[in-house]
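Hi X.,

You mentioned you wanted examples for the new student's onboarding notes, showing what a folding record looks like when two proteins sit in one file. Here is a clean example. The first protein comes first, with its sequence line followed by its structure tokens.
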Amino acid sequence: MSNDDTKDMVETVDVSPRDPDLPQVPGGDVFRQLLHQAVRVADMANSQAMRMALDFAKVYEREQGVRAQFENQLKQMTLMEKQATRYAEDLAGMLRSERERRQELERALEQERIASEELRRTGLQGISHLLLAATIKDRTTGTHLQRVRRYVEAIALVEEFGYSSVMHDVGKIHTPDHILQSEHHLSDAEFSVIKQHCIDGEKMLGTARFFETARAIAREHHERWDGKGYPDGKKGEEISLAARIVSIADVFDALTSKRPYKEAWSAEAGLKAIEAGAGERFDPELVAGFVALAREGVLERISSEVAASSDDEQLGSSAK
């Protein structure tokens, strides 16, 4: 029974005419009251049910929205996961490629190292042969080259400068012996010939990278700090560091060695000449370092060791 039917029934009961001749039934009012209460309770129950239904509909709608939002986020997360997987795969591929390139580079570097070492050995053998040839031709020249090398290494603390210095006068192979061994001061024409050994030496050393420092030394070791040297008139730091060092060592040893045209100077006199040339002929900072080595006895020790080595070689040759 609906609410409307119940109300109609109650109203019918309320408005029905009463027969005055009929006796009043006890409890009639109570029944109507109970019926009214039942109707009110039913109305309240229906209203509450409607509210609950509306609330449920709202909750359901909200939950559907949350579900749709969650599903959308889930799709986005799935897409992001796929993208991350692709990125990870791409990154892994890049890392593999990079690792392969690195391995190739390491192999290339190792090959370069081996080639450089082989080139170095070949170059050092060539230097040794030149030194041997110079020593055979003139033992004085051989010991001079050895002392110069040791002096240079003591100043520079660079092995490359030392073994490259051995070739500073290699161009003199083209210089006539009568000029090299002359016991008088050279004429202008003879001096022009001997100056050519700087250029000849650079050319003789070719273009190999191993001899790059040696070429600079061969060409520049007669340049001067003040720019008055030869063959190019370079000055100051325009002259390579190796050549500036060799210049000091070469002149000092030439002064303190016996030559066809002069007697050997004392080490002290040679050192004073080097000091006097600081700022004019020689790099003043390098001169200060060279003088310090002399004061420490390094130059004297080197000269003694080279002399002893030369004597041993000479004794060995005589024994044979």
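Then the second protein repeats the pattern, sequence line and then tokens:
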Amino acid sequence: MIGQLVAIQGTMFPRFWNIIISPGQCKEQETMTRDEWHKLIEMPKMLDYGVYLNVEPLLQCQKPLDQLCNGDELQFQIVHQVEELWMKLIAYTLVDVRDFIDRGNTHRVVTLMGRVHRLMRLMTQQLELLETMSPREYQEVRKQLGNGSGQESPGFQVLLRMPNDLWESFKAVYLDGRGLTVADIYDARYDHGDSYVVAEALIEYDELFQKFRAMHICLVHRSIGMGSRSLKGRPVQLLESGARHRFFPELWDIRCDMTDAWGASYGVVRKPIHTVA
């Protein structure tokens, strides 16, 4: 892991390697069978690092390797379990964000929202791993889900509930508390101040969440098709309506309002700026 020298010694397996890993060097004494590798993958030796991170129970959160329905089920489980962990961290961070909004601590709000934005990008990017599954392999995995659906994701459901609390705090402190409206901070009294930067941090989260849902729809297209029905019997087209949901509609609508208002000053059809020959 981290360090100049890592020694891994196996006591559970009689034919396990004694491996010494140093920069640019790897010495192996004996190869292992597939079954021995699987045992090592599932039950590696735990030192302080592994104990602190609870790696042993973490590695037991997936099906035993000898019970997987195919070679892609482990990937399917791990990707979605990691998504749940990222969503837990996002939710935990957003609780702190709301507290800092309530205190008017703009610097902390922006810093923590930057963390949330990075987490959302990670969640979206790692979905690409699932595109390495063939439709046939996914159908085999899908049979293992019972009536389960990604819409039941515990972390996803928590995140869907949080934006209202964030908006109420933002409105109380950064709008009403300062005698401002959304139109003020974006147009009439625009000064790129605290209210504006916090609003932009919120809308970026909203945008990234929509991109995550859009990526998920593309994955559904690629794996099972959009004309099929979900495991609960509902058309998967319902996912598309969810992807159009906005957490902070006021922050999106102001763009339209500004374009209409500014557009009225120059008309719908404008004169060309190039010189007509």
